Amino acid sequence: MSSKLIFLLLLTTLCKAGTPDRDDGYRLWLKYDLIKDATKRAAYARSTQLIVLNSTSPIQKTAAEELQTGLQGLLGKTVPIVASAGGKTGGITLTTNAAASLNSEGYQLSNQQNTITITGKTDAGVLYGAFALLRQFQTLQPIDRLSLTSNPKIQHRMLNHWDNTDGSIERGYAGQSLWKWYELPERIDPRYRDYARANASIGINGTVVNNVNASSRFLTAEYLQKVAALANVFRSYGIKVYLSVYFPAPKTIGGLKTADPLDPEVNKWWADKVNEIYKFIPDFGGFLVKANSEGQPGPQDYGRNHADGANMLAKALAPHKGIVIWRAFVYKADGKADRFKAAYDEFNPLDGQFAKNVIVQVKNGPIDFQPREPFSPIFGTMPKTPLGMEFQITQEYLGFATHLVYEAPIFKECLDADTYVSGKGSTVAKVVDGSLHQYPLTAIAGVANTGSDRNWTGHPLAQANWYAFGRLAWDHTLSSEAIANEWVKMTLTTELSSAKTITDLLLKSREIYVNYNTPLGLSRPWTGVHFAPEPWQNRSSRPDWTAVYYHRADSLGIGFERTAKGSNALAQYRPEVQQQWNNPATCPLPYLLWFHHVLWTQKLSTGRTLWDELCTRFYTGADSVGWLQKQWASVRKDVDSETFANVAGRLETQQKEAIWWRDAWVLYLQEFARQPIPAPFKKPERSLKEVKELVDIYQLR
Amino acid sequence: MSSKLIFLLLLTTLCKAGTPDRDDGYRLWLKYDLIKDATKRAAYARSTQLIVLNSTSPIQKTAAEELQTGLQGLLGKTVPIVASAGGKTGGITLTTNAAASLNSEGYQLSNQQNTITITGKTDAGVLYGAFALLRQFQTLQPIDRLSLTSNPKIQHRMLNHWDNTDGSIERGYAGQSLWKWYELPERIDPRYRDYARANASIGINGTVVNNVNASSRFLTAEYLQKVAALANVFRSYGIKVYLSVYFPAPKTIGGLKTADPLDPEVNKWWADKVNEIYKFIPDFGGFLVKANSEGQPGPQDYGRNHADGANMLAKALAPHKGIVIWRAFVYKADGKADRFKAAYDEFNPLDGQFAKNVIVQVKNGPIDFQPREPFSPIFGTMPKTPLGMEFQITQEYLGFATHLVYEAPIFKECLDADTYVSGKGSTVAKVVDGSLHQYPLTAIAGVANTGSDRNWTGHPLAQANWYAFGRLAWDHTLSSEAIANEWVKMTLTTELSSAKTITDLLLKSREIYVNYNTPLGLSRPWTGVHFAPEPWQNRSSRPDWTAVYYHRADSLGIGFERTAKGSNALAQYRPEVQQQWNNPATCPLPYLLWFHHVLWTQKLSTGRTLWDELCTRFYTGADSVGWLQKQWASVRKDVDSETFANVAGRLETQQKEAIWWRDAWVLYLQEFARQPIPAPFKKPERSLKEVKELVDIYQLR
């Protein structure tokens, strides 16, 4: 868009009456409200008099336009985009330099004599640099001595959308899918571009647009046209499109009798299909695959293994430089086995057997995105296989859209964990970023929390989780606090004291949630749709889909014994890790019940018995939501009124539900522990029967 | 909200940079953009210098605020709301007058010496008058001799939302449900108020918030709190809340062993439940019930009839002045019977047996919201039973959100149809508005097309259908054209020539759709989700859920014989109606195949054989979408650019799919008719097999 056009459009906006008067959150962290401090604006204005774009690259054009849009808002002035500075100083120059000491998407920002240069080795680097520069302005950083170099540590930084053909999202709590399949490819929702903008601004460069429980539809020409229309929008933001594939597609849409990965006809079908895809989408990213997992078909149906399946697809994609992302999230319906061990047991023997363009994508923990899990033992093995990380941004087990959980600490906890696979300091992050095992391919994925709700994420503060995922995918050494503070300043307020308060509240939110939801290493106490507490749930089509399978409460104690005395899942970790967790007396409390069945009367390091400690956590967790509410109330004056009310309303729901969780747990566990609620806590005002009745309401058809 | 606050908020809006620069359709027909013509603004300004509100009624307060908001936008000035004119002329006075010759919700608008008076018998009348006045301004009417009286012809003017607890909408094509059940009652989405504003502006005074395939959840205290929170928002807009109920709720949530409507315990349970509801919602409207229909349980499960079921609920609601709306949409799974006759057969014998606070709600046609149906024969009988109308606004059988179908002509066609029940002139409208049989209760419902999409209805022009339903519910004598023109001027453009073009395109859109979809009285040629053409569909769990059940094509001809030679459904109509439709030679072509199995070679009144006529309709229908596109292209300069592009994209999809429909029908029917495509039309470029493959894609899991 030309600068003139943008200016006219902005003018139109400014003159349009009747626009809703609230900040609806649509703009995310790309708000670009006018900087209030005139001195600051003047300082920035000195180095932003023009934008020099000497390139026909669509991505660099995007970079220039984003700068122009941002500066229009932040400084209230229209900065022209020009092909040459013509000797003038005081502008922003975009440039690529193939010889720069950067990796392929890194950037350098510098300011010399009031002239800012954004250098990338590639066009994408320039785009990321442009957003980084805007971030400097948005967070009111000094720029006169700007000198900043940044390289993404992981190559493929992706969102995974679990979105279905009918517009539903398998674990979505912010409306419907962003993708309007019935309208595509003819109608292009302007929101597709805004989605790409938001992602590019935090360095995300890939998106899997459909659910891992995939429909074959997406591999038909009819749907490839639709996907291509999205790819056409995303391309100039440096974002590639990937598809989840249904493994038996050769049968369901190819008319073949088998989907056996070693069958030549099947191989040919996939090769042809991939060729067809690349005709529609020349820069197609590749496939994400959920196979032989939770009812999805896969290579094992034909007596083959995961590597056989992945390698067949990899062979088809290789000529086009496409990749296969094969998920390690597998477990069998075996009530006697320990689900914790399943993925490791299936994948570890396959190390070194995957083709070069395959990444095995591993969930952060061994079970399934619980509020707290130990890191997956797979990260401590398989050095010959590129392992990608799968985090969940959407709050499937984190209270949907009404509980506040800032997730950067969850991501960091896993990334910073030491696997000891190559000695001390072998963190999960170093595995995933490839530095430990020199992976040729690296990847990190977040299961998206985006939906068609106006503010994208339902809970306004859940935007921070999308943001934090992107920032950590780029640079996992950033701290949770730094990211939170940056996001708050860009999104909510630049007032220092309120920004600090909100940052603090974000940082503490996850531990508060764990305390009332699953303290001390409890997990999976959920109803069917993962909404309400149901630790008593003991019937299901699969034993590992009950709650009692996980907590194993009995009259003596609670917890899943995973030492040699039990399932011995602990043996899947390196000895140094085992040593940390093996002894219940020294096992860190957050992981205690993950690995040990502990007596109710056992004294813990806190000085309390297990029962008392559990009660203390449930009660203080629930009480802490009151603290969150108070903190939020204190920032009212510095936050947009609609956003304020929105969050305040959700915190109220959270408070109510936190008490519900607390009551459900303590009343249920009391039937085993047969002990009173310890002072100073008061026993719940309702009975277990009443709690269960409330839960049952949410399960009524 | 005080005038000062509104003014400040508007100022804030005007100064907020970075707001998306497109008109996203959120404001619907309440746009209130500045009137361009300064002379016109000055003329209006003379009579809008203040708003005199001498009442503490929340509804009148709403009226005053809506006037203020509207005038702020339209005239660009803040009009103060004052308690007394203090002798000044030139203002707008809101007043109620119990003695006015109006019905309870009617209004009068008058202008004397530049002082406008809005008179209602009730507060609601004043609110409707305020919106009517704004409509005068929005459509640029002269107001100096304003003298307008209007009374709603039907008492209960309602939307029915087929919205589920999980946020899905059974037949929704514009995103998720507007109701955020997991957030309620604590978080109040500002959109709830905007929903109420839009409805009140067109006279809608009731809303059933949940699906007729109802969950018992809504009758629990937990959910009643949530529903009450919505009712609290809607109340000051004169809108009452109703609930769809699950008939066996006494069993599922009441713990009883039966839901038999004649069981005393069941009666008591409902009485108690209703008392509880009115504690939460003092002005609760009543229940909507789908019973013994499409698998829903009902009174027949206990050997009782519909009246028994309805009357039991009516008894519980009567003390609170609540009503029961009992749906007549029933049919059994009997392949040998004619579904057309089912509802009449079940309900006609019950005439006079329903309690006084029961309305039987009848779909406009005998089958199910097809693009064209004859009026339901039930409207021509049951004079002792108040019959309400159920229209479908959401485009379940009208191409979802990508086909343009302006529905006022569908509604009008039914309302204007003559049942002859009390002699000539006994139109369906006179049945429904109660004037024919002196009903004590009258009601009309539209199955909502609203969803969480930013523009509410997906297709921007589908907003006109919501609007038209409301306007016709208020006054069914309005013409489709007048409503379309009014809506266009309020929503898209006041430029006369373009407004006329768009009005014309709206008016023709339904006939165009019928031509390529179901011409000459064809019906129900749909795939499972009612998206793609599948006239060949012949397998289903029920015979009346196949396509071939409806069209009955064979080697000789096509159509469902419903004269005495066939099912004799025609006998359900009055003799005068039978006479119109009984003879295939004189039966109007739009209804021909509804009542007659006609030979392919039969010459029709058009001079063409049936086969040639069908082909002509399919082809001209599909071609006419090109005409729609051209017409739309011609208004580009007068329509907001984003809205323009949005509609243009959808028309492109419609064009593609219209050809798909055409090809599906002609290629499939050709297998029976064994005749060539008549000149000048060219045979489809694809084979029936290819068409079927395309359809199959949309049915892939």
TrEMBL record, chains A, B:
Catalytic reaction list: Hydrolysis of (1->2)-alpha-D-(4-O-methyl)glucuronosyl links in the main chain of hardwood xylans
Name of this protein: Xylan alpha-1,2-glucuronidase
GO molecular function: alpha-glucuronidase activity; xylan alpha-1,2-glucuronosidase activity
Active site: 294 (proton donor), 368 (proton acceptor), 396 (proton acceptor)
EC supergroup of this enzyme: hydrolase
Keywords: Carbohydrate metabolism, Glycosidase, Hydrolase, Polysaccharide degradation, Xylan degradation
Cellular component GO terms, alphabetical: extracellular region
Family (UniProt): Belongs to the glycosyl hydrolase 67 family.
Taxonomic superkingdom: Bacteria
Quaternary organization: Homodimer.
Assigned EC number: 3.2.1.131
Entry keyword annotation includes Hydrolase: yes
